[in-house]
Amino acid sequence: MSSACRSTLLLLGLLCVAAAAQPRELRVCADPDNLPFSHEDGSGFENRIARLVADEMGAELRYAWLPLRRGFVRKTMGAGLCDMFIGVPADYERLLTTRPYYRSSYVFVDGAGARGVASFNDPRLRSLRIGVQLVGDDLAATPPGYALAMTGHVDNVRGFTIYGQGPAAQRMIEALASGELDAALIWGPQAGYFATRSTTPLELRVARSPASRADLAFEFDIAMGVRRDDRALRDELDAIIARRRADIDAILAAFAVPRTDLSWGPGP
Prior knowledge:
By secondary structure, the chain is of the alpha+beta class. It is 32% helix and 23% strand.
């Protein structure tokens, strides 16, 4: 064998060794200030689940941080900045999703002046000051906001946008605690997390869609999402979810996530 061939083989060998030595990376798309889900300091429950998944893979965890606004998927995964989302609706058509790892619902959260509110048929809703979340750049209402409008409860409703100091759900809980609101309709994981941290006792009850609009979804299965062509990663994540189910459940419980896939809490 010529010296040139030996040199080429040696170089190829060194390149293979170098490639093998590179640690695997798990690149996650996340909002840097969206508790209880994610935060740049790693304190959200999706941060903890991401860490669990990365450890199972033997991968180094990396984040692509971007506020959760219009174009989030396009600007992160679509731009090649990351490989997965930790929490997305299980039927989200823009991604290939895993099996769901929890199911939650919008909930009624009531303060001292509105104990027991659990239905859109409650006549007290006409006089109570009610908070709802608004989403997106166009300030669209969440399903509970639409339900309130359909049942005629609009004059006493206050919308909380994604813009402001801290997550909208946190500001809503603070408004309930201070007496600015009597009741609120909040996505369950956010409501559970901030309500347990409130110095004012608050109660949560599962919100069901009005009988006249049974098609209006209030409950959602939550899964992990990857690029639509990345079946290998999706299948690997499915296996991790199955294998580490108890640990994922423990993380969700530590963050007081209301779960409708389990027996949870008061309802109507």
